[in-house]
Give the backbone structure.
Amino acid sequence: MSLNVLVVDDSPVMRRMVRRSLGMCGLPVGEVYEAGNGAEGLAVLSERWVDVVIADVNMPEVDGVEMVERMAKDGMLARLPVVMVSSDRAENRIERLKALGVRAYLTKPFRPEAFREIVEELLPLSTSLKAEPNGALLAELGATCLEECVFVLARPAEGRVTWPAEVSRAAIALDGPVPGRLTIAAGQALGLEIAAGMLGLDPADPEAHRSVDAALGELVNILAGVLAERLYGPDASYRIGLPELSRGPPGGAAAALVDDEGRGFRLSLEMQRTVQRGRSTS
């Protein structure tokens, strides 16, 4: 899977150069977050999942050293690699940062390949997944299950889907080599169509109305089984949890499908990061 990177530097030019280097070096980069100083960087870390931090040393307000000190105090450096990028070549500064837990120190100017070498050493990518858990995979499996289990034809949504006020959700945990959580969501009308299709009833039948939640729970269970086999492989050891039902607008942006009447069906998948933390050099 891709890596989420936080770039902390007061220079917009340098942040852009780091972004460009990450793109050139061939790393599987996902989200790249930016911060103008250490305080902003710590704020990002409190709200977002980040796999590696690339930070400058000299910055206004909260510099790189103070940011690292706060991360060390909070225990973040034990799990989150920090790579310092700076023009400062003073040995005492470098040794102090490494003593705090900084994994690597890169001096300017640098080659794009240097990022790859450092990050691959610190965060070797896991090969435990057999398929990339992305929106295309979810859309494919969701459309297939809707057609085969519910007799509803669905296709990827084009543009934004308008959701009704009443939306039902069903979520289920995947406990495998890389744990995850699959969630599906449908409005009341499509949920009723799903229940009727699975039970072989007319949508007007009261039993179909009573069975919407149960049908979504069974559908997410079926989807989880198909998805787990694709993600982990047929020979892997994994366990699928029990469906959890709820109400509310669909969250997460993964895959949105619509049926012939334009009714929306959303699938989202949250996976734990598939990177293995390197050992600390402190």
